[in-house]
Design brief:
With about 200 residues, the protein is an alpha/beta fold. Helices cover about 35% and strands about 20% of the residues. The protein has a single domain, classed as Rossmann fold, CATH 3.40.50.150. The chain has helices at about 1-15, 20-35, 50-55, 70-80, 120-125, 155-175, and strands at about 40-45, 60-65, 90-95, 105-110, 130-140, 175-180, 190-195.
Protein backbone atom coordinates (compact mmCIF):
# COMPACT_ATOMS: atom_id res chain seq x y z
CA UNK A 1 0.00 0.00 0.00
CA UNK A 2 2.86 2.35 0.81
CA UNK A 3 4.00 2.15 -2.81
CA UNK A 4 0.51 3.03 -4.10
CA UNK A 5 0.32 6.02 -1.72
CA UNK A 6 3.64 7.32 -3.09
CA UNK A 7 2.41 6.78 -6.66
CA UNK A 8 -0.74 8.75 -5.84
CA UNK A 9 1.24 11.64 -4.37
CA UNK A 10 3.32 11.72 -7.54
CA UNK A 11 0.19 11.55 -9.74
CA UNK A 12 -1.47 14.38 -7.79
CA UNK A 13 1.57 16.59 -8.26
CA UNK A 14 1.91 15.76 -11.95
CA UNK A 15 -1.76 16.26 -12.83
CA UNK A 16 -2.44 19.07 -10.37
CA UNK A 17 -5.00 17.10 -8.34
CA UNK A 18 -5.52 18.64 -4.89
CA UNK A 19 -4.94 16.05 -2.17
CA UNK A 20 -4.96 16.55 1.58
CA UNK A 21 -1.79 17.79 3.29
CA UNK A 22 0.18 15.14 5.20
CA UNK A 23 -0.14 16.95 8.53
CA UNK A 24 -3.95 17.09 8.14
CA UNK A 25 -4.42 13.43 7.22
CA UNK A 26 -2.09 12.40 10.06
CA UNK A 27 -4.35 14.31 12.50
CA UNK A 28 -7.52 12.73 11.06
CA UNK A 29 -6.06 9.21 11.18
CA UNK A 30 -5.10 9.74 14.81
CA UNK A 31 -8.61 11.10 15.52
CA UNK A 32 -10.20 8.01 13.91
CA UNK A 33 -8.10 5.71 16.09
CA UNK A 34 -8.65 7.71 19.29
CA UNK A 35 -12.43 7.96 18.87
CA UNK A 36 -12.90 4.42 17.58
CA UNK A 37 -14.49 5.65 14.33
CA UNK A 38 -15.87 2.79 12.23
CA UNK A 39 -18.12 4.35 9.56
CA UNK A 40 -16.85 7.26 7.50
CA UNK A 41 -18.44 9.42 4.82
CA UNK A 42 -16.12 11.48 2.63
CA UNK A 43 -17.39 14.28 0.40
CA UNK A 44 -14.85 14.65 -2.41
CA UNK A 45 -12.91 11.50 -3.29
CA UNK A 46 -10.46 12.98 -5.83
CA UNK A 47 -8.11 10.04 -6.55
CA UNK A 48 -8.90 8.18 -3.31
CA UNK A 49 -5.84 9.33 -1.36
CA UNK A 50 -7.47 10.47 1.91
CA UNK A 51 -10.13 7.75 1.77
CA UNK A 52 -7.56 4.98 1.51
CA UNK A 53 -5.53 6.40 4.39
CA UNK A 54 -8.61 6.83 6.62
CA UNK A 55 -9.83 3.29 5.89
CA UNK A 56 -6.35 1.89 6.56
CA UNK A 57 -6.43 2.95 10.24
CA UNK A 58 -8.29 -0.27 11.26
CA UNK A 59 -9.46 -3.38 9.38
CA UNK A 60 -13.11 -2.94 10.42
CA UNK A 61 -13.54 0.60 9.07
CA UNK A 62 -15.94 1.11 6.16
CA UNK A 63 -15.96 4.26 4.07
CA UNK A 64 -18.37 5.78 1.57
CA UNK A 65 -16.85 8.46 -0.63
CA UNK A 66 -18.55 10.68 -3.23
CA UNK A 67 -16.94 12.08 -6.39
CA UNK A 68 -18.55 13.85 -9.36
CA UNK A 69 -15.51 14.05 -11.68
CA UNK A 70 -15.41 10.91 -13.84
CA UNK A 71 -11.66 10.88 -14.44
CA UNK A 72 -10.92 11.19 -10.73
CA UNK A 73 -13.61 8.65 -9.85
CA UNK A 74 -12.06 6.04 -12.18
CA UNK A 75 -8.57 6.80 -10.86
CA UNK A 76 -9.85 6.38 -7.28
CA UNK A 77 -11.43 2.99 -8.10
CA UNK A 78 -8.11 1.84 -9.55
CA UNK A 79 -6.13 2.97 -6.50
CA UNK A 80 -8.59 1.48 -4.00
CA UNK A 81 -8.41 -1.88 -5.81
CA UNK A 82 -4.60 -1.73 -5.82
CA UNK A 83 -4.71 -1.35 -2.02
CA UNK A 84 -7.18 -4.24 -1.70
CA UNK A 85 -9.79 -2.00 -0.08
CA UNK A 86 -12.64 -2.32 -2.60
CA UNK A 87 -14.74 -4.34 -0.10
CA UNK A 88 -14.49 -1.61 2.52
CA UNK A 89 -14.56 1.55 0.39
CA UNK A 90 -17.63 2.37 -1.68
CA UNK A 91 -17.13 5.09 -4.29
CA UNK A 92 -20.29 6.90 -5.38
CA UNK A 93 -20.04 8.63 -8.77
CA UNK A 94 -22.43 11.55 -8.29
CA UNK A 95 -22.70 15.19 -7.33
CA UNK A 96 -22.71 15.04 -3.52
CA UNK A 97 -25.65 17.43 -3.25
CA UNK A 98 -27.75 14.96 -5.27
CA UNK A 99 -26.62 11.85 -3.41
CA UNK A 100 -29.15 9.93 -1.35
CA UNK A 101 -27.83 7.97 1.63
CA UNK A 102 -31.11 7.37 3.44
CA UNK A 103 -30.90 4.85 6.26
CA UNK A 104 -27.17 5.29 6.74
CA UNK A 105 -25.30 6.70 9.69
CA UNK A 106 -21.66 7.73 9.99
CA UNK A 107 -19.29 8.33 12.91
CA UNK A 108 -17.19 10.75 10.89
CA UNK A 109 -18.06 12.95 7.93
CA UNK A 110 -15.10 14.47 6.11
CA UNK A 111 -15.80 17.44 3.82
CA UNK A 112 -13.15 18.14 1.20
CA UNK A 113 -14.94 19.06 -2.04
CA UNK A 114 -16.15 22.28 -3.72
CA UNK A 115 -15.29 25.00 -1.20
CA UNK A 116 -18.23 27.17 -2.22
CA UNK A 117 -20.66 24.41 -1.18
CA UNK A 118 -19.37 23.69 2.34
CA UNK A 119 -22.45 25.13 4.09
CA UNK A 120 -24.78 23.08 1.86
CA UNK A 121 -22.69 19.94 2.42
CA UNK A 122 -22.76 20.45 6.19
CA UNK A 123 -26.52 21.06 6.26
CA UNK A 124 -27.30 18.07 4.04
CA UNK A 125 -24.96 15.47 5.50
CA UNK A 126 -25.20 16.34 9.20
CA UNK A 127 -28.50 14.38 9.08
CA UNK A 128 -26.43 11.22 8.52
CA UNK A 129 -24.18 11.79 11.54
CA UNK A 130 -24.34 9.37 14.47
CA UNK A 131 -25.20 10.97 17.86
CA UNK A 132 -21.56 11.13 18.95
CA UNK A 133 -20.24 11.74 15.45
CA UNK A 134 -17.90 14.41 14.12
CA UNK A 135 -17.76 16.53 10.97
CA UNK A 136 -14.26 17.52 9.85
CA UNK A 137 -13.72 20.02 7.01
CA UNK A 138 -10.43 20.65 5.21
CA UNK A 139 -8.88 23.79 3.63
CA UNK A 140 -10.30 26.19 6.20
CA UNK A 141 -7.28 28.46 5.62
CA UNK A 142 -7.42 28.00 1.81
CA UNK A 143 -3.66 28.41 1.26
CA UNK A 144 -3.54 31.37 3.62
CA UNK A 145 -6.07 33.33 1.55
CA UNK A 146 -8.87 33.26 4.13
CA UNK A 147 -8.88 36.63 5.87
CA UNK A 148 -6.30 37.93 3.37
CA UNK A 149 -7.19 41.39 2.08
CA UNK A 150 -4.20 41.60 -0.27
CA UNK A 151 -4.87 42.76 -3.81
CA UNK A 152 -2.51 40.13 -5.21
CA UNK A 153 -5.13 37.40 -5.20
CA UNK A 154 -7.33 36.63 -8.18
CA UNK A 155 -11.07 37.26 -8.30
CA UNK A 156 -11.73 33.51 -8.22
CA UNK A 157 -9.45 32.99 -5.20
CA UNK A 158 -11.10 35.91 -3.39
CA UNK A 159 -14.53 34.42 -4.14
CA UNK A 160 -13.57 30.98 -2.74
CA UNK A 161 -11.85 32.54 0.29
CA UNK A 162 -14.97 34.58 1.08
CA UNK A 163 -17.14 31.43 0.78
CA UNK A 164 -14.90 29.72 3.35
CA UNK A 165 -15.09 32.82 5.58
CA UNK A 166 -18.91 32.50 5.37
CA UNK A 167 -18.60 28.81 6.29
CA UNK A 168 -16.47 29.63 9.35
CA UNK A 169 -19.11 32.16 10.46
CA UNK A 170 -21.82 29.54 9.86
CA UNK A 171 -19.92 27.07 12.09
CA UNK A 172 -19.33 29.64 14.82
CA UNK A 173 -23.01 30.59 14.89
CA UNK A 174 -24.30 27.01 14.70
CA UNK A 175 -25.68 26.35 18.19
CA UNK A 176 -26.17 22.64 17.52
CA UNK A 177 -22.45 22.08 17.04
CA UNK A 178 -19.30 23.07 18.84
CA UNK A 179 -16.50 23.68 16.36
CA UNK A 180 -12.76 23.86 16.90
CA UNK A 181 -10.67 25.51 14.17
CA UNK A 182 -7.23 23.93 13.98
CA UNK A 183 -4.13 25.44 12.46
CA UNK A 184 -3.05 22.11 10.96
CA UNK A 185 -2.06 21.71 7.32
CA UNK A 186 -4.33 23.99 5.28
CA UNK A 187 -6.64 24.41 8.27
CA UNK A 188 -9.21 21.98 9.67
CA UNK A 189 -12.53 22.49 11.42
CA UNK A 190 -13.74 19.82 13.84
CA UNK A 191 -17.46 19.99 14.68
CA UNK A 192 -19.18 17.86 17.33
CA UNK A 193 -22.74 18.08 18.63
CA UNK A 194 -22.85 20.63 21.45
CA UNK A 195 -24.59 18.37 23.95
CA UNK A 196 -21.73 15.87 23.60
CA UNK A 197 -19.09 18.36 24.72
CA UNK A 198 -19.24 17.12 28.30
CA UNK A 199 -19.03 13.43 27.39
Amino acid sequence: MKETILEMEKYAEEYNVPIIEKESIAFIMKYIKLHNVKRILEIGTAIGYSGILMASVAPDITLTTIERDEKRYLEALKNIKKCGLEKRIEVVFQDALEANLIGREYDLIFIDAAKGQYIKFFEKFSHYLSPNGTIISDNIKFHGLVGNTSEDITKNQRSIASKIEEYIEFLKNNKEYTTKLLDIGDGLSVSTRSENETR
